[in-house]
Amino acid sequence: MNETARSLGSARTLWELAARRAARTPDRPVFLQSSRSLTFGELCVRAERVAAGLYGMGVRAGTVVAWQLPTRVETAVLSLALARLGAVQSPLIPFYRDREVGFALRESGAEFFAVPGVWRGHDHTAMAHRLGAPGVFHAYDTLPTGDPATLPSPPPSGTPVRWIYWTSGTTSAPKGVLHSDRSLIAAGSCLAHALRLRPDDVGSIAFPYAHVGGADYLVMLLLYGVPALLLEHFALPDSLPEYRRHGVTVAGGSTAFYSLFLTEQRKRPATRLIPTLRLLAGGGAPKPPELYHQVVRELGVQLTHGYGMTEAPMITMGDPTDTPAALATTEGRPPAGMDIRIVDGEIHLRGEAVCHGYLGSSPSPFTPDGFLPTGDLGHLTPTGHLVLTGRRKDVIIRKGENISAKEIEDLLHGHPAVGDVAVIGLPDEARGELVCAVVERGPGAVELTLPEAVSYLRTRGLATHKLPERLEVVAELPRNGALRKVLKYRLRERFSPS
């Protein structure tokens, strides 16, 4: 990390970090979107005005404000404005629906809820009112504003919990992951250092800004003073003109993004897909070693893949200067300040980038000496690289998002054609994993089809990204001989591609 980034990284709060960057390079761009460009200086000026508008609405330090917004300039400004006030933010992924949103609003005790109105065919305002959400306001292309002179002093400390991110984990209900400004700054600093950004780099945020990676990425931009392209909706080839127009040099998100870029490159193998691109980077889903070699060979760029989770956004990351073997077969090394230990094959974490726990969690998820068990299995190589070998938790990771198998199973159990069901993740090159529902037919029932199952789950309010892509009907699910527990590993062996 260069000296400027190192000094900025000592900021106590996210707002202090943004203000320091604005003072150093006020005229450099931070966000690029279509024909719009926002500088670091303008970001802070707009955020203070919006903070004043929110203050006039009654938002104070400690007020819980939920927001479910797409990846836009306005979303970043609103989030920074809330950080200026010291409010507690509860970001929600835009494709979450009634079940997840209703749970998050209730559990967080949100007093305000920012929505985009109708976005991509879904009426978020109607959903908010249907759920009885308090303080609903629109924040898509207009934001509340006021006089910054009315604002109190910025929060002096970055250690209190001010962020609640949501992850499904392995249970039917999401978990609220508690972060502070300092934990997010620590994670973003790790990411920035690992990617070895250059002064002329242009990044890209093609994933939901409401993901914990959004704050991670913002910290990286503030530390290094580089801009990022914001994509409200990522789709190829439609998004390619924006990548080319803004000269993006660093792109990615997860395994699915790599595969999509490869698919497009293969349509015109003799022409570079994005001429300025030098690096793909991401995490959140398994990366087949062969995919690394395909990206390097066919796209002509480097690929660094990492390991992170909502609880610790940056645990390890591949280094662009690592050997091809290390980049292809490991998740990289932990940065300074991230302690990893392996206990009975399970990965345990400790460090400033690790969350403060879970909302309402009792007992504490941490070990007596402060390590967080991840539920993931792996080992460290002699060079300190982390190799993931599996997961204790029954969770499916599809395009970087955690999906609870139990949640889908609980809903499908209510269908009259289902006697029993097991939901598993199967390897998939494009998604990392796909969702497969294996159904044991109910007595005398007509065989369930995939379209019928998907339609039924939609009516029950399941988010679109959790819907099964595959359905198998069996006479009887495999079970053990003691408690008749379904043996999911046998289903994976049977239905995984050979």
From TrEMBL:
<dbReference type="InterPro" id="IPR020845">
    <property type="entry name" value="AMP-binding_CS"/>
</dbReference>
<keyword id="KW-0436">Ligase</keyword>
<feature type="domain" description="AMP-dependent synthetase/ligase">
    <location>
        <begin position="20"/>
        <end position="359"/>
    </location>
</feature>
<dbReference type="InterPro" id="IPR000873">
    <property type="entry name" value="AMP-dep_synth/lig_dom"/>
</dbReference>
<dbReference type="Pfam" id="PF13193">
    <property type="entry name" value="AMP-binding_C"/>
</dbReference>
<dbReference type="InterPro" id="IPR042099">
    <property type="entry name" value="ANL_N_sf"/>
</dbReference>
<feature type="domain" description="AMP-binding enzyme C-terminal">
    <location>
        <begin position="407"/>
        <end position="480"/>
    </location>
</feature>
<dbReference type="GO" id="GO:0006631">
    <property type="term" value="P:fatty acid metabolic process"/>
</dbReference>
<dbReference type="Pfam" id="PF00501">
    <property type="entry name" value="AMP-binding"/>
</dbReference>
<dbReference type="InterPro" id="IPR045851">
    <property type="entry name" value="AMP-bd_C_sf"/>
</dbReference>
<dbReference type="InterPro" id="IPR025110">
    <property type="entry name" value="AMP-bd_C"/>
</dbReference>
<comment type="similarity">
    <text>Belongs to the ATP-dependent AMP-binding enzyme family.</text>
</comment>
<dbReference type="GO" id="GO:0031956">
    <property type="term" value="F:medium-chain fatty acid-CoA ligase activity"/>
</dbReference>
<protein>
    <submittedName>
        <fullName>Cyclohexanecarboxylate-CoA ligase</fullName>
    </submittedName>
</protein>
